[in-house]
Amino acid sequence: MADSPNIVTVTTENFQAVVLEGSFDRPILVDFWADWCAPCRMLMPILANLAAEYRGRFILAKVNTEEQQALAAEFGIRSLPTVQLFKSGQPVDQFMGALPEGQIREFLDRHIPRASDGLLAQAQGLLAGGDLAGARALIDKAREADPENARLALAELQLMAARGEIAEAQEAIDKLPIELAGEPEVLALRGQLRFATALEDAPPESDLIARLSEDPKDSLARYQLAAHQVVRGDYASALENLLTLMKRDRTFQEDAARKGMLAIFDLLGGGDLVAGYRAKMMNALY
Predict the structure, then answer these.
(1) E strands of 52-155, at which residues?
(2) I want to staple 161 with a disulfide (CB 3.0 to 4.6 A). Which of 36, 63, 123, 169 is the partner?
(3) CB of 228 within 8 A of CB of 208?
């Protein structure tokens, strides 16, 4: 372990250079341990093996808390082992105790980009530009280079949706790896699929506007109009229509208006429009 270039013993003298400054180049995993701590000894070989396997994608920094009590106090270490991950000079996540290797991998993979992630990011850019063939080629290249990358499933799903395979994408999204379920991209995609499904048998937008001018209480027409507006990026109009529908007909398709607003919030991720309509939705509900 001492001979590994990816494992460093850290003291108060070199903590600034190794951890704080070094974490601007790549993540630093800091293991706070002590000789008397049996779980620490159980964890050590797991962390060492992962440091070797990841081949420099992160540095494992070892802090003996008996010898470096000031460092332990500075970072609020109250139980051992505690493992903190530093990026850009700051601790961004941590875990305590001797976790199983699988859970530590999940912890690392939340923060450490894989080599194939760059290819998948490029594929997403091509999808946004409508180059489905180019995206397919990059996804295949990423799969060949790194078949264990969980984000491959998301890329395949995004390609499926871009090809208009809505039913297949709806089925596949529920089979994504659990670590991706809460990702903003997945939440946004769920919203996109919701509205794409709503438009499968919908009339043109002009027909829906005409229907609503004759009968403003036509719930289906208002919901389908909002779906059209989402697909063409007019989120403000879609939210206004869904808010109106939610106020008038909460029973429509099992509260579809409220769920649709939540889906748009996930699509947009934040901002003034989301904040404003979230407040309006809450006022309407309560």
Answers:
(1) 59-64, 82-87, 90-96
(2) 169
(3) yes
> Considering only CA atoms, which of 236, 234, 267, 260 is closest in space to residue 246?
260
What are the start-end ranges of the H helices in 129-204? Answer: 132-145, 151-162, 166-173, 184-198
Per-residue pLDDT band for 106 (boundaries 50, 70, 90) equals confident
Query: Which are the catalytic amino acids?
Result: 37, 40
Q: For the chain, which residues make up each domain, given as ranges?
A: 7-109, 117-173, 198-285
DSSP string, 229-286: HHHTT-HHHHHHHHHHHHHH-TTTTTTHHHHHHHHHHHHH-SSHHHHHHHHHHHHHH-
DSSP category for residue 26: S
The predicted model gives 155-181 an average pLDDT of 88
Domain 7-109: which topology?
Glutaredoxin (3.40.30)
Cβ pair 61, 8 in contact under 8 A: yes
Q: Are 91 and 23 in contact (CB under 8 A)?
A: no
Residues 198-285, CATH architecture: Alpha Horseshoe (1.25)
Average per-residue pLDDT in the chain? 92
